[in-house]
Amino acid sequence: MTSLWCELAWLGGDEPERGVLIGIEDGAITTVRAGADPGDAERLDGLTIPGLANAHSHAFQRALRGRTHSGTGSFWTWREQMYALAETITPDAYLRLARATFSEMALAGITVVGEFHYLHGGGNAMAEAVIQAAGEVGIRLTLLDACYLRGGLDSFRDTSAHAWARRVGELQDGELLRIGAAIHSVRAVDFESAKVVAEWAADRGAPLHAHVSEQPEENESCQQENGLTPTLTLAEAGAISPSFTAVHATHLAPNDIAVLGFANVCLCPTTERDLADGIGPARQLREGGAKLCTGSDSQAFIDPFEEARAIELDERLATGVRGNHTPAQLMEAATSGGYDSLGWPGGGRLAPGAPADLVNVSLDGITLAGTPPEHAVEATIFAAGPRDIRHVMVAGRWIVRNSDTVGTVP
Ligand SMILES: [Zn+2]
Questions:
Q1: Is residue 317's pLDDT more than 90?
Q2: For residue 194, what are the CA distances in angstroms to 157, 224, 251, 264?
Q3: Catalytic residue chosen out of the listed positions 277, 297, 303, 340
Q4: Above 80 in pLDDT, residue 382?
Q5: CA 301 to ligand 1 centroid distance, Å
């Protein structure tokens, strides 16, 4: 039994609670009580929040940072550079790259990552490398193994959706590991194959993700092939449900927004701005019932607060309107929204029964010193960054202490 006493903790409202005592047993939160005395509990100064979820990651693309950001071109020319990198990666290189990337995430306060995994070479050696890397860092992982059947590189593709299902069926859930499914996109997976993947996920109650309408060109070719938008194609294939997550969802028609009201939408603003994708209709999606979450996607940047505040700030630029999302709604997108999307329901919350995943944010560093306690939530969402992350816990174990990784490697 571990007891933590938080000077301030965010329990879901616009303002943090004071003096919050959190009891932890067997990797889960058992009690949460505000207005409590510290007693002999371990004291956490500053603001404590639930673990931050990174719902969309391609770990290997961390190696593109600083190599693809300048110059002209588009999403499509960026993709050529990404392909060139992917061709050079071995399982051993993948382990080292993913371990470094997941360490950077842990230091940024990320406690669970959804690795959208399509660089598998038709086998599971790359997936095992990703799983090992997450285990060594101590971060919770949902491996979203992506069906990819056409276009791209040989190393992305399975021979059929059934071959994909056989391969992914060999991977097993673990204490901090969930195996989920992904349809890479309607570009890479035809309609009949999308049905197979959707059925596989539904049978297992596994999370299902897909890249959706990142670029207008994808919408046009999907209309030509299926006579529908990508969202409606996926709906016809049986993919859309509360355990489905549409990644990007940037270029949507009104019917798409209505359908996605039954699902999750993962926005990746720092990647979307880097690739000149556009700004998605986040407010309309949220008001239509979609649950929002965020992802670092291409790892152009790894900062979950920047992704969350960009939902609001990018929409301000696009609409000329402020206050589309409250700080609490942005914090939800960064925490519980991602846990729900990644198949850890009830996670990303400081509440009894939730996994004991939490993040302690310093309020006395260079960024947040002087923040009045009642404004700590909005100050954190709108101004904090990885430098303000002090301690990070996953399943009751510290993986970052005093802004440094602990990890599980002896
Ligand atoms: Zn992606």
A1: yes
A2: 14, 17, 21, 18
A3: 297
A4: yes
A5: 14
Alpha carbon of 395 to ligand 1 centroid (Å):
27
Q: Are 185 and 229 in contact (CB under 8 A)?
A: no
DSSP 191-250: HHHHHHHHHHHHHHT--EEEEESSSHHHHHHHHHHHSS-HHHHHHHTT--STTEEEEE--
- Is position 297 annotated as part of the catalytic site? yes
**For residues 303 and 104, what is the distance between their CA atoms, to the nearest angstrom?**
9
Query: What are the φ and ψ backbone dihedral angles of 250, each rounded to 5 degrees?
Result: -85, -45
For the chain, give the percent of residues with pLDDT over 90: 86
Chain segment 258-275, per-residue pLDDT in tens: 999 999 999 999 999 988
The rounded distance, in Å, linking the Cα atoms of 303 and 300 is 10
Name 394's bridge partners: 397
CA dist 154 and 215 (Å) reads: 23
Give Cβ neighbours of residue 181 (< 8 Å, ≥ 6 apart). Answer: 144, 145, 146, 147, 168, 197, 200, 201, 206, 207, 208, 209
How much of the chain, in percent, has pLDDT values that exceed 70?
A: 98
pLDDT in tens, 83-112: 788 888 899 999 999 999 999 999 999 999
- The CA 10 to ligand 1 mean position distance, Å, reads 30
Q: Which amino acid is located at 264 in the chain?
A: N
Q: What is the 3-state secondary structure (H, E, C) of 264-310?
A: EEEECHHHHHHCCCCCCCHHHHHHCCCEEEECCECCCCCCHHHHHHH
Could you tell me the CA-to-CA distances from 6 to 49, 98, 156, 245, 297 in Å, in that order? Answer: 10, 32, 45, 33, 32
Q: Which of 58, 120, 248, 391 is catalytic?
A: 248
Q: Distance from the CA of 17 to the center of ligand 1, in angstroms?
A: 36
Name the token pair of 58: 């391609």
List the structure tokens of 91: 């399982």
Spatial separation of the C-alpha atoms in residues 196 and 148, rounded to whole Å: 12
Range 105-125 burial, b when 16+ CB lie within 10 A, else e: bbbbbbbbbbbbbbbbbeebe
Q: What would the two tokens of residue 144 be? A: 């979203």
Interior angle at CA 125, CA 62 and CA 58, nearest 5: 25
Asked whether the beta carbons of 181 and 206 are under 8 A apart, the reply is yes
Q: How far is it, in rounded angstroms, from Cα 207 to Cα 126?
A: 20
pTM here? Answer: 0.96
Does residue 58 carry a catalytic annotation? no
